[in-house]
Design a protein that fits this description.
This protein is elongated. Helix content is 47%, strand content 13%. Strand 11 and strand 12 form a beta hairpin. The strands form 5 sheets. Strands 2-1-3-4-5 form a 5-stranded parallel β-sheet, with helices on both faces. Strands 7-10-13-6-14 form a 5-stranded parallel β-sheet. The protein contains 19 helices and 16 strands. Helix 14 packs parallel to helix 16 and helix 15 crosses helix 16. The N and C termini lie far apart (101 Å). Bound molecules: adenosine-5'-triphosphate (ATP) and magnesium ion. Magnesium ion binds next to helix 7. Adenosine-5'-triphosphate binds next to helix 7, helix 13 and helix 15.
Length: 502
């Protein structure tokens, strides 16, 4: 069966043969031409190697004689050169006398096949070439599949980047890239993970990322804040209760561990559990089994636990507030999120990310980019509230900025007031509030949603203006640079009593 002379992935298929016997070369030529191949005979090995090097894309097979005459390099040596330069090129070694030793040497040197020049050479060669052709087809198929693997890998990467975008996990700093890799690795393994870090460093985001990247991604992601519920409630929240378990338990209720079956359970603020409760959690972690409150049936679940805390766990354990065995259980893998002030390289990307997010959520935001000065200002700030604080500052600045580029002033206004000692006399802080200062009664709570914080700020401004205007509303409106009607609107909005300063 003659293969076509040229195919798409191999334009010309040439077989190179090296032998010092012209009649062997002639015979080989007959066999190969009959198979529709181009044929290049050589009596000199070095010339053949040079030819192969110059026609790499065309040469599909090399046939080498074992002995090429006195003073010449033999087939095995030539094979060594060929293997080094063209690892995948099939090479057949021919020999005049079949010795096991020669065959072993040839195969060890990487020969694809080993043939004896006997009266059957024509037939054995045919069989061998047939075999090699199948092998070549196999190699081509493997290459194609490898190409597909590359395509698959690329597609995977694209999918991952897409998932990253959805997860919105910004990681520019080297320390954060390591954490991203750790998340990818640990997500594949159904073991507990403990996420540690100051408030606002992204612990919950990491927990969600672990779930989303895990084989459980299609299962539930259930969160419970251990610090936000009382002991009794926490137990029924996590394990559920039977009807009549306690006053008010009118119906049977499934606990969060049951709801999380097949998925991930995020135990937030895990450092705040009482010792008794820690014992119960330890049992669930250990056996994936529990009973509902007032229930007798044991419920088995398959839940992956991710826990987080901003507590100093070593201290909590030393003071006996946290069970060491529970810690060891939870800390199969520990992810420590560094505070933002130690990875300032993340600030530009995070700020851009939060601005884009804010623009997508809130209509009519003018700022599209962040000016270099604004960014420089952000880079100088310490962010005790970490990433969450950065997010709030960017949102507040964007909200208060009517230019296409977020400027330094907008950022400055969005940053919390510095303690007075740090403020240089007559410094930049002077240009704030009604007459240059923040309203004295205004205290910002970064934990509140933005509209509430903005409202609190607005209310404080109105109150402050009234105070300064000695309760004369027209004057207060003037101080704020607004019309009396506008002022009255705010006055009513914030439910201020006549006499103003209630
Ligand atoms: N690497 C990051 N990339 C993008 N957004 C982030 C990143 N880290 C944190 N955030 C965002 O910052 C905010 C705070 O993050 P998160 O709630 O996960 O912090 P936390 O450590 O759980 O805080 P707390 O200790 O107060 O509970 C969230 O809006 C989160 O999406
Ligand atoms: Mg959190």
């Amino acid at each position: 069966m003659a293969a076509p002379l040229a195919t798409a992935d191999s334009p010309v298929q040439t077989i190179v043969a090296v032998d010092d016997q012209p009649e062997v070369l002639a015979l080989l030529g007959e066999v190969f031409r009959a198979r529709g191949r181009a044929y290049q005979p050589f009596s000199d090995g070095e010339a053949a190697i040079a030819y192969v090097a110059a026609h790499q894309s065309e040469v599909v097979l090399v046939v080498l004689d074992l002995e090429l005459g006195a003073g010449k390099r033999g087939g095995i040596e030539l094979l060594g050169d060929l293997r080094a330069a063209h690892p995948d090129l099939p090479v057949i070694i021919l020999t005049g006398n079949a010795t096991v030793d020669a065959a072993v040497r040839a195969v060890k040197a990487g020969a694809t096949d080993f043939l004896v020049k006997d009266m059957y050479l024509e037939d054995t060669l045919d069989v061998s070439v047939e075999k090699i052709e199948r092998m070549l087809a196999h190699i081509r198929e493997r290459r194609r599949l490898e190409g597909e693997n590359v395509a698959l890998r690329n597609a995977n990467r694209a999918l991952r980047e897409e998932a990253d975008r959805r997860l919105q996990f910004v990681a520019e700093a080297a320390s954060m890239q390591e954490i991203r890799e750790k998340i990818e690795r640990i997500s594949q393994l159904s073991r507990p993970v403990l996420v540690l870090g100051e408030r606002g460093t992204g612990k919950e985001l990491v927990a969600a990322a672990i779930h989303r990247l895990s084989p459980r991604a299609n299962g539930p992601f259930i969160t419970i804040n251990c610090a936000a519920v009382t002991e009794t409630l926490l137990e029924s929240e996590l394990f559920g209760h039977e009807q009549g378990a306690f006053t008010g338990a009118t119906k049977r209720k499934e606990g969060k561990f049951e709801l999380a079956d097949g998925g991930t359970m995020f135990l937030d603020e895990v450092g705040n559990m009482t010792p008794e409760f820690q014992t119960k959690i330890l049992r669930v972690l250990e056996y994936q089994r529990f009973e509902r409150v007032a229930g007798s049936k044991t419920i088995s679940v398959d839940v992956r636990v991710v826990a987080a805390t901003n507590e100093d766990m070593e201290k909590a354990m030393a003071e006996g507030r946290f069970r060491r065995d529970l810690y060891d259980r939870l800390a199969f893998e520990v992810i420590r999120l560094p505070p933002l002030r130690t990875r300032r390289e993340d600030i530009p990307a995070l700020a851009a990310h939060f601005l884009a997010q804010f623009r997508a959520e809130v209509p009519h935001v003018s700022a599209r980019v962040i000016s270099a000065e604004a960014l420089a200002r952000l880079m100088r700030y310490d962010f005790p509230g970490n990433v969450r604080e950065l997010k709030n500052v960017v949102e507040r600045a964007a909200y208060g900025c009517d230019r296409p580029a977020l400027d330094e002033r907008a950022v400055e206004r969005a940053l919390p007031p510095e303690p007075p000692s740090k403020t240089p006399a007559g410094g930049s802080r002077a240009a704030r509030g009604v007459e240059g200062n923040l309203p004295p009664e205004f205290s910002d709570d970064p934990a509140l949603p933005l509209p509430e914080r903005v409202a609190a700020f607005e209310r404080a401004l109105v109150k402050d203006a009234l105070l300064r205007a000695k309760n004369k509303q027209r004057e207060a409106a003037e101080l704020l640079g607004m019309s009396y009607d506008q002022f009255r609107h705010l006055y009513r909005k914030y439910g201020m009593k006549d006499g103003g300063l209630a």
